[in-house]
Specification:
The structure holds three protein chains of three kinds. Chain A is an alpha/beta fold. Chain A has 16 helices and eleven strands. Chain A is globular and about 65 Å long. Chain C has a two-stranded antiparallel sheet with strand order 2-3. The chains are: A alpha/beta, B alpha+beta, C mainly alpha. The interface between B and C is large, with 80 and 52 residues. Chain A: Residues 134-147 have a biased composition (Polar residues).
């Protein structure tokens, strides 16, 4: 029953409702998403599994006509970052080393989304193992930002959840999973002009998320509305017998069940919103700062009280992160040795030769750089000065947040200091690392954060980040919904003028 | 005995690192079971094979077993311990790191008692996971079997307080016994669930420690002993020959065939394991009341039992050793003594070490362990009481025990069914007594002459005549009565 | 015999020669070569030089970390939810006190045979399956 209307119009709520009430079928919806994915000019996908997706959609349609109740994501096509396991699908993590690697199990988050009715259409491109913020460190090619100005040079979708953010912005799917270690959901959300949520560390099970830096890794959601982020969280959150750091969800369920008592005209009334002193945002692009400031004004109109907060160790975030995350990465990526799975490169005669060739040829440049950095900061003679010290300063960063949240409810910052940069720029890695300065601190402290699209103009996209205290995911998402209650439009623009490999 | 070292004025300094597999039947951080000898790679979950995206989940049963050992050895148990990652690459190590405890082990200190009364102080024990197995003798390629990967281990590290190969053997025997008694491990060296690395150095008494050498590939007590002895001689010879450079800090393998240690191709570049706290696992905290519960559940340790058997119950050291070789046997014995009193100890020890253990050793029956017995301590205690009360004589008791071993049942019933009860009936007794008196005139005369001890021979004759069934006390009284009346 | 020495955390290693008087020790090219090998990565000379340069610059940019007074700060290794920092209860699986709890940070259940992956599936993606095993170049000793 395709045809009359856009099967994918609106957000996931809208799509699920239309399927549930019979306006459209799951099959036609998934078919429409697959059709767009096939003709996707932005390079969002690593792989599509059309047959499995359509079969699943037909199964849902049959269940519905058999009178089965419809889950909250009934028939909604979703995309999964290719570092989150989907049984039988390509889980390449954007790496040559895992080219062709198919997962043999489902991530808990995927399992729960599917149980709620979602249909996985494919896995998306990403910076290799989550390392990068441009989408360019991907073995199968870079994704381009769907919100690139017509005729302009191709913009980066951000990263590392580049394909997931672009797929949502391009209207291929209303909802996609990404992963966020230091900003990898929030920054591409800001660049692509969509919403992106990084939950409290432990809120969503990491079982099935291929580890980059375990103590920072989170599975997050990209969507075109804040309410979709809340829905996805409600579906995915909670303890899991396969991740011992995932915590209970009783607080979440209580809050979800409570009636919304907010004044519709002043939904932020009573909210104390923390902001940095201007001097802390000197590196931020003027356009970004202007949009950010304007949105803060809007927050004030909606009832929020702006309170200046000081996080004295915030400025150390990048250094702490780029010591700890590579250290954990060097550990987590040790399993890619050519023995059990992945692409092996035979060279020399010994086991060590084989492992070395496999890893040297399998990992891209940025991953190699970070493994070396991580190996260095953990090695004998350097552990204390770097790893241990960084872990202590991390404590200070977290303590700063805890102290700030004594006097404010949420903290607002720009998500990224710049608008999307042009693909193919050759930049010093340190420049890119510093681009994560505003998203990293919440990751270090394990806090929930959301990026709200406050400008979706091609080439000028800006996101505003809201950070909350640990476990306050719903407060963060509901404040985001207040700032931008509607869904952002998908862009269906033609392929961008600039080309990338 | 390292006599060579002693003759040259050296003492041998030994420290041990002992790995024991915990008998949980599963893995430390993964959900699948483990069985020795299962088909290769048939007991491997996604977690154990380190599929991308998997996480460890601690098995509490393993922690509990590890804590039992720590409590038994009187270790210090901190409130919090943590798991760390130890990194190195090898084909049998799926994650490229082993999860172990470096910075905050679950216990420190403690001691293992030796048979000679000394105790060896421990540095620490920590929990870690085992690696898989690399098979090298099946063709041109090395084959990797991950079944064993992830099996829980505890690694015990002693202080360098052992002074000979005998000390090392004594230590391992004692530790193995405690592991088995606490139910923590099967501790079978042949199956590789108890493995030992040895650090050996020599020095002149009173000197600071000299360079140590680590010995590996020691899969039996005999190898532990032989390798230490060989290594001590090698080191003393090197020092005496003025070639101390032959003793370097290294790992040497024990060549079982040739009975010598040889240097292991050093893994070029000294190890740098880049330890890091494992961010996937929460700290392990153990509540004080939980520790108390575990402590209350601990069995009495074998060396304590042995001391008790010898000092309180008067058993020989040999018998005490036989009875405590297996915990279930010792428990059975304790159960009898508890019911029948300390006085029953010798008799119970005798039956258990002869008839019961004999039955286990006898392969013609189905009995191999205490678990197979069709009776328990209560029946043995009952048997003791039947003898003590004079209802049953010792020869009859042996017959009853034979019946218990084969068929079980109640000793009292067996006495009746076999008609083994001591005969006190005057008519029957008198007939046997008269026969005895008639054929032992000299003893009768002696008794008449005032030597009552001579009655013993007469009682013996009654027992013989009655086929052992006469009640000896009754028979004796009747004999004296008949003699007095004659 | 310093049995315990090997066990001590590798915190007190000697910084490589060339480290500066103050601040953190900086890596020499020889350090990088050793560490690349530890990480099973082979670098040609050109790449080694460029990565070495990157590392030195990156660490120099992070030098500010060395100025933070960390003496009263405990390392933060995981931002763990408070509920997961409570003591373990070593309750038997049948213990009603343990049943129904939402905490699942450790396993209570007995080993589950169904969690072993079917061997054919396990070896399906393996580079060199041999006779139910993972095959690798011959290695006699580690």
């Amino acid at each position: 029953m395709s045809g009359a209307h856009d099967q994918l119009a609106g957000d996931a709520h809208d799509v699920a409702r239309r399927i549930a009430d019979g306006t459209q079928s799951a099959e036609s919806t998934v078919g429409a998403a697959l059709e767009r994915a096939r003709t996707d000019p932005f390079g969002c996908f690593e792989a599509l599994d059309e047959e499995a997706a359509l079969e699943r959609a037909r199964e849902l349609d049959r269940a519905r006509s058999g009178g089965a109740s419809c889950g909250p994501l009934f028939g909604v096509p979703i995309a999964i970052k290719s570092n989150i396991c989907v049984d039988g699908e390509l889980t390449t993590c954007g790496s040559r080393l895992l080219a062709g690697h198919r997962s043999i199990y489902d991530a808990t988050a995927v399992e729960r989304l599917v149980a709620a009715g979602a249909v996985v259409v494919g896995t998306t491109r990403m910076d290799e193992f989550g390392m990068g913020s441009s989408g360019e460190n991907c073995a199968s090619g870079a994704t381009t930002n769907p919100r690139t100005p017509a005729g302009g040079a191709a913009r980066s979708p951000g990263g590392s959840s580049s394909g997931s953010a672009a797929a949502v912005a391009a209207g291929i799917v209303p909802l996609a999973l990404g992963s966020d270690t230091g900003g990898s959901v929030r920054q591409p959300a800001a660049f692509c002009g969509v919403f992106g949520h990084k939950p409290t560390w432990g809120r969503v099970s990491r079982h099935g998320l291929v580890a980059f830096a375990s103590s920072l890794d989170t599975i997050g959601t990209l969507a075109r509305s804040a309410r979709d982020l809340e829905l996805a969280l409600a579906v995915m959150a909670g303890p899991d017998g396969r991740d011992s750091t995932a915590f209970e969800r009783t607080d979440l369920d209580r809050e979800l069940a409570a009636p919304d008592a907010r004044d519709a005209n002043r939904p932020l009334a009573g909210l104390r919103l923390g902001v940095f002193d201007d001097s802390a945002l000197t590196d931020v692009d003027p356009h970004v700062l202007e949009r950010f400031t304007r949105t803060l004004e809007r927050a004030r109109e909606l009832g929020a009280e702006l309170v200046t907060v000081d996080l004295p160790h915030h400025r150390h975030g990048v250094a702490v992160y780029y010591v700890l995350a590579p250290a954990e990465a060097s550990s987590n990526l040790a399993r890619y040795d050519g023995v059990r799975y992945g692409r092996r490169v035979e060279a020399g005669t010994s086991l060590e030769d084989m492992m070395t060739a496999t890893r040297t040829e399998g990992f891209g440049h940025e991953v190699t750089r970070r493994i070396l950095l991580g190996t260095h900061v953990l090695s004998s003679g350097f552990y204390e000065a770097w790893f241990d010290r960084a872990a202590r300063v991390r404590r200070a960063v977290a303590d700063d947040f805890a102290a700030a949240f004594e006097s404010v409810d949420l903290i607002a910052t720009p998500t990224a200091p710049t608008t999307p940069f042009t693909l193919g720029e050759d930049v010093d890695p340190l420049v890119r690392y510093r681009g994560d300065a505003l998203t990293i601190p919440a990751s270090l402290a394990g806090l929930p954060a959301v990026s709200v699209p406050v400008d979706v103009e091609p080439g000028r996209t800006v996101g505003l980040q809201l950070i909350g205290p640990a476990t306050a995911d719903l407060s963060v998402l509901r404040a985001a919904a207040a700032l931008r209650p509607d869904s952002v439009e998908a862009t269906r623009g033609a392929a961008p003028g600039g080309s990338v490999q | 005995m390292s006599t060579f070292a002693h003759e040259h004025g050296y003492e041998v300094v030994v420290g041990l690192e002992v790995h024991a597999q915990l008998a949980t039947g599963g893995k430390l951080f993964a959900p699948e079971p483990y069985r020795f000898g299962a088909d290769p790679n048939s007991l491997v979950s996604i977690v154990t094979s380190a599929q991308p995206g998997v996480l460890p989940l601690l098995d509490r049963a393993a922690v509990e077993l590890a804590l039992r050992v720590a409590l038994a050895l009187d270790c210090h148990i901190p409130e919090t311990s943590r798991f760390d990652r130890k990194h190195y690459f090898y084909c049998d190590l799926p994650k490229g790191y082993q999860i172990t405890q470096l910075f905050h082990p679950y216990c420190t200190g403690g001691r293992v008692p030796l048979a000679d009364g000394r105790a060896i102080e421990l540095e620490r024990i920590h929990i870690e996971e085992d690696a898989g197995k690399a098979v090298h003798d099946r063709g041109p390629r090395t084959l990797v079997d991950l079944n064993r990967a992830g099996v829980p281990l505890i690694e015990l590290v002693t202080r360098p307080d052992l002074r000979s190969s005998d000390d090392a053997v004594q230590f391992l025997e004692s530790y193995r016994e405690i592991l088995v008694y606490t139910g923590a491990s099967d501790a079978d060296m042949e199956k590789g669930n108890l493995r030992c690395d040895v650090n050996v150095s020599v020095r002149r008494p009173g000197e600071p420690l000299r360079t140590k050498v680590e010995l590996k590939n020691l899969n039996s007590l005999r190898n532990v002993q032989a390798s230490i002895e060989f290594e001590a001689v090698r080191q003393v010879e090197a020092y005496e020959a003025g070639t101390p450079e032959l003793v370097v800090q290294e790992t040497r393998l024990f060549d079982v065939e040739r009975g010598e240690t040889r240097t292991m191709r050093s893994k070029e570049d000294a190890h740098d394991y880049r330890y890091m706290p494992d961010p996937d696992l929460p700290p392990v905290r153990v509540a004080a009341d939980e520790l108390e519960r575990l402590r209350d559940g601990l069995p009495t340790l074998p060396h304590v039992r042995r001391a008790n058997y010898v000092e309180r119950l008067g058993l020989s050291a040999y018998d005490a050793g036989v009875l405590t070789a297996e915990r279930a046997v010792s428990d059975l014995f304790d159960g009898v003594v508890e019911r029948a009193g300390d006085g029953a100890a010798k008799q119970a020890a005798n039956w258990i070490s002869n008839q019961v253990l004999g039955a286990f050793a006898d392969e013609s029956n189905a009995l191999a362990s205490v678990a197979d017995l069709p009776f328990g301590a209560a029946e043995l205690a009952e048997l003791v009481e039947l003898v003590d009360s004079g209802t049953l004589h010792s020869r009859g008791a042996r017959d009853v025990l034979d019946k218990l071993l084969t068929e079980g049942g109640s000793p009292t019933e067996w006495v009746e069914r076999l008609n083994l009860g001591a005969v006190r009936d005057r008519g029957a007794l008198e007939a046997w007594c008269r026969t005895a008196l008639e054929s032992n005139a000299r003893a009768v005369d002696a008794v008449k002459g005032g030597n009552e001890k001579a009655a013993g021979a007469l009682v013996g004759a009654v027992m013989k005549a009655s086929g052992g069934r006469a009640d000896p006390a009754e028979a004796r009284a009747l004999l004296l009565e008949l003699i007095a009346a004659s | 015999m310093a049995t315990s020495d090997d066990r001590r955390p590798p915190l007190k290693g000697t910084p490589d020669a060339g480290s500066r008087e103050s601040g953190a020790p900086h890596p020499e090219p020889s350090t990088l070569r050793r560490e690349a090998r530890l990480a099973r990565l082979a670098l040609d000379p050109q790449r080694e030089a460029s990565l070495s340069d990157d590392l030195v610059r990156i660490l120099a940019a992070f030098e500010s970390l060395q100025e933070v007074d960390v003496s009263n700060l405990e390392p933060l290794h995981q931002p763990l939810h408070a509920s997961l920092a409570e003591p373990l209860r070593h309750a038997a699986p049948t213990d009603p006190a343990a049943a129904g709890t939402s905490r699942r940070d450790s396993r209570l259940a007995a080993p589950d045979p169904t969690s072993a992956v079917d061997r054919a599936r396990l070896l399906e993606g393996a580079p060199e399956p041999i006779d139910g095993h993972f095959g690798v170049p011959r290695t006699i000793e580690q």
